[in-house]
User: What shape does this take?
Amino acid sequence: MRWGLLGVRLSIVAVHLVIAAIIVMSLLPLATGMLEVSFPDEGTGEPTVDGNRVILTVPVDITNGGYFDIQGLTVKFKIADGTTVLTEQSSVPVDVLAGQKGRLDLSIVVDLDDLDDADLRSLVFNATVLDLEVGVEAGYSLGLVKASISADQEMTWEPMVSRADIDVTNIQWVSNGTNVDLLIPYHFEASEIIHGKSMSVQARIANSTAVLGTASESMTIGGSNDGELRFVIPQETFLWLQAHPETLILGADLSLMGATMHMDRVIETGGSA
Assistant: This one.
């Protein structure tokens, strides 16, 4: 699900189409008349984040032009990532009287706190394809006649954080008293659903025998995010690295909403500063 841009709207449209198709297929024989399904613009917002819950609200207006009252209309959703069920919810049953309009409100909630580390990391940092199962139940004639139908489709989920990179080709050494600061830029992009939240970066740089320095950064997320890791390196270590070939490993952990992504980069030293 692409948060915030064209993709999220396409996903909402896809959800709408599935609901509409199921409602029409399941209830039209019951209503034995005209049935209209619409989705009011004012009620359908983009996904929001409340704490660690991702919420998408989908209201559905149903006009019953048939001869019978539609009773207990319920839409059920299940979204899964492989064998992991991310959310499974039902709308509050509503009755749509003959010749009148009724509204059904469905709130799709994915609680990130309920996911294990691997699933959480996948949803925050990786693109994946989710399985969407939608079902509709309803009845008429005082509840004596009931019908239900369900349908499955795939739904693309795009990461909240994307294009994360640490640019080890653009490092800088800056004198800082008796030490030398090693500055390494990093970049990531974020969907607008998490704008204003905090991302932390914890990093360390090491050779084959020891950790040479650590860095810690925290930033408030915007659309395109640029920062700089600052490692404080002792002067004698800096001089050694400039004079001798060394392979350094930069390891960094990006953390957001309880999910952590690890990145490793290689820095080759040796030569003049």
In short: Confidence is low (pLDDT under 50) at residues 1-11. The chain has two domains: 6-157, 161-269.
